[in-house]
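Posting this for the archive.
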Amino acid sequence: MKTLKYFVIGLTALLTFNSCGESFFDTEYTTYLGEEEAQTAAGRNPDVFTNGMWSWNVAYQGRHDSFGFMSVCKYLEVMGEDIAFQTSSWFNYDYQLDYRLEAWVRTSTIWTHFYTLITKANEVIALYPKGGETAGEKGLIGQAYAIRGMSYYYLIQIYQDYLAANGTSFNMDAPGVPIMYNVMDGKTEEEIAAAKGRNTVKDVFEFAQYNLEKGVELLSEGFVRKNKNSIDLGVAQGLLARFYLLTQQWQKAADAANAARKGYTIMDDKGLAEGFSSESNSEWMWGFHHTTETSTSYASFLSHMDTNGAGYGRNYPFLIDAKLYDQISDTDFRKALFNGPEGDPTAQMAGAQRPYANRKFKLLDNFLGDYIYMRASEMVLIEAEAYAHLGNGSKAATVLKELMSKRDPQWSESSVDVEDVYLQRRIELWGEGFTYFDLKRLNKGIARNYQGTNHNYRFVVPAHDVRWTFQIPRSEIQENDLISESDQNP
């Protein structure tokens, strides 16, 4: 798989950014390290080998709609109905569910993003043929297992219609994605080679779960991260909670989410108003802290999302779906994160003046602002939803109240169901990259053609429509002998 041959073993990226229109991301690497030198360096400073993964997650890829993991989330999120456009946008074709075919750059970008992370993770894991000994070594390897597991569960959701039509079982025998085994995975050369074809959904699920659980195990050995750029035990448990929710392992999802959020405090209304741009927030679990050296200026998540700043959002604003806005209680502090139907004529920028414009995200000075990957609020929502699926509505409400007590002082439900929790997910996590995945795992379609809609592209797309599943990139079919034209998704 030539598309996977990108980065050398665990080496620190040196990021150089220039002005808009030039190359934002020039990456250089140090020379190869021998096994002994690499292990010595990793023991001294594990972060040196994972920094490449975190840098790749925010890497500018030559287009102003391509800025790493958060751009992938954005491609997928606008395919739902919670974000509305009324102007042109860098994400127009995604919004129209018309960017999934094999020849388009979008599917290639997504595929390359996650397989590059997998390649980097494999390189880190291979540093220790006998496994780590110190907490630092185990933390290094545990982060690699966690990111590898995360990458596979994102890929299988994007490249297969994995959920059966009944919504309660899985298409386990359906073709999934290639698995890039590491020599540490205990596979023969023949098995490693064969896995570069399309493995079944069952195979990918099992391997993702193995990696995530292995990551949690290793990170529980005393590893302490230096900053929120890295994965620690809580984040690994959060990634595992997401996977358990995806695979309908409800009690495990509840337990993992509860464990993941320990030590974090749900932000109050003042925190909500701060702009979702600083990892110092009390409930942020994982993200990326940008500096002037790593900022990608216009080509960045917050540039697109801030409707009242200096970036793209001032002209091409992301709006909240009008129907979703109407479902937010007037006593809910989160309603203030969006304009109402009258707009805001006092706002400085045209984007922020529009009806239903989001005011949730705010750029800081000099195009700075941190990227958010995981929050404690999401963990509350996972735990509550899991109990709702288990039929324990009162327990679900008790858990959900931990969030709602900080969001809506009038909220006082004694029992909630899955749809109640799902509504709060849509409101709480708006713009953060969850919509597409929630629609698929909950067996839902979208309808943007309702009376009073504020969408400029209006249609109905049912669950399991072919447009929800991306085709494998054309380059992968051309370069991978184990994937042929007949293996392509519809």
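Strands lie at 14-16, 26-28, 83-84, 284-288, 319-320, 371-375, 446-447, 460-461. Residues 1-33 have pLDDT under 50 and may be disordered.
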